[in-house]
């Protein structure tokens, strides 16, 4: 490679993209210590030396309605970023997830002679399969999180490498349950329920009320002789002001511990988690925790997306297992009563929880591939081409 310290441009949207990109950056810096990276990113990326021209929160929209409300600003940002990158000409552009934003940008950059990598194969196997054509035009190479994806992309002429999931490298095979409880000030004998309503503002609005109401029902049904039942919510950056009024409205009088960030410690510490469908479900699986997957969104978004789904599963653990390992409660099914019932069923059945943990350990080992090294190998090969 002619340049031992490549100049990178990256775009990551939302908290999950910021996390994935930061872990990738850590590996790239280990391989090329002088690597420079600029573009759109979040606090985790910035902690790895990333220079953010715009914050990743600007891309944290979900669904057709949310996107339409922010379309003008998103198009302006993408246009300005495209023009700047075509002038500065980084050695490679890496789009981290955010396909609706990144595909158009990558296509323009590639047409302008820049090398492009897309990190995270879009879930064409789950819904919106037509995006594979856009991906083929956008990316010189795709870094895939899951083992079945490269062969699927090869059918469409897209070069791809299975790199595993960086979270599988980051999260220990044996979760540090007791250490996490001590760090969070939770009792060793307490039963801990983690509530993770999502990292987007729209998710908080649509999902948090049902989770909080379910927590109230769980507390009412919990036998006193089983000891304390405690609820913990790791709050994504900037979302505490949105969550506090919902807590007062939907769970008045319920003791809920709000923790800024620290979602991994909360997952390591908990006995069961109620959480929004998304990356957090895979994190919970890697921490070997039983879960109830919940998702609710604007009715129009749901109506438009429902007919495009190819699989019966929504949560990543179920998709990877190709079966319902854990319950999913989507839209109208996601009632507080149903959520509470499924959560209590986990807490009432330790043997079922142990069997689930064994399945999750197998999944963990499959995804543990030293992602940073494999990804940097793929990028190095592209740079040498």
Structure description:
Belongs to the LpxB family. InterPro entries: Glyco_trans_19. This is Lipid-A-disaccharide synthase. Pathway: Bacterial outer membrane biogenesis; LPS lipid A biosynthesis. With 385 residues, the chain is of the alpha/beta class. It has two domains: 7-164 and 369-384, Glycogen Phosphorylase B (Rossmann fold, 3-Layer(aba) Sandwich), CATH 3.40.50; 177-366, 3-Layer(aba) Sandwich (Rossmann fold), CATH 3.40.50.2000. The protein has helices at residues 14-31, 43-47, 63-69, 71-88, 99-111, 131-138, 149-154, 166-170, 177-184, 201-221, 240-250, 263-269, 279-286, 299-306, 316-321, 336-347, 350-367, 371-384, and strands spanning 7-12, 36-41, 51-55, 92-96, 116-119, 141-144, 160-162, 191-196, 229-235, 256-260, 272-276, 291-295, 328-330. The strands form two sheets. It has a seven-stranded parallel beta sheet with strand order 3-2-1-4-5-6-7, with helices on both faces. It has a six-stranded parallel beta sheet with strand order 10-9-8-11-12-13, sandwiched between helices. Strand 5, helix 6 (131-138) and strand 6 (141-144) form a beta-alpha-beta unit.
Keywords:
alpha/beta, seven-stranded parallel beta sheet, Lipid-A-disaccharide synthase, Rossmann fold, 385 residues, 13 strands, six-stranded parallel beta sheet, globular, transferase
Topology diagram in text:
Blueprint: E1 7-12, H1 14-31, E2 36-41, H2 43-47, E3 51-55, H3 63-69, H4 71-88, E4 92-96, H5 99-111, E5 116-119, H6 131-138, E6 141-144, H7 149-154, E7 160-162, H8 166-170, H9 177-184, E8 191-196, H10 201-221, E9 229-235, H11 240-250, E10 256-260, H12 263-269, E11 272-276, H13 279-286, E12 291-295, H14 299-306, H15 316-321, E13 328-330, H16 336-347, H17 350-367, H18 371-384
Parallel strand pairs: 1-2, 1-4, 2-3, 4-5, 5-6, 6-7, 8-9, 8-11, 9-10, 11-12, 12-13
Catalytic activity: a lipid X + a UDP-2-N,3-O-bis[(3R)-3-hydroxyacyl]-alpha-D-glucosamine = a lipid A disaccharide + UDP + H(+)
Keywords: Glycosyltransferase, Lipid A biosynthesis, Lipid biosynthesis, Lipid metabolism, Transferase
Family: Belongs to the LpxB family.
